[in-house]
Give the backbone structure.
Amino acid sequence: MVDAVEPVVVGNVRRLAGDRYPRHDLPGVAAAPREVSAEPVGLLKGAALVGDPIAVPPVLFHLLWRRELHVGLSPPPHTRAVVSR
């Protein structure tokens, strides 16, 4: 018998699913978050290190969806959530 998945985890996966589409797969932008996340880094800090605060987050979330980058899904990903490769 399987326990129910925590509602917070389900909500976070649904949020990431919104950025699963190929339009967010931008190789030129995606290389930088991969490099910055070689060592664990805060979500927004990593995005700020990469560049454009409007263009980077959808690509970052796309990489999380594809499991190229990792973040805990139990607490909601927040501004200080740690992202790693």
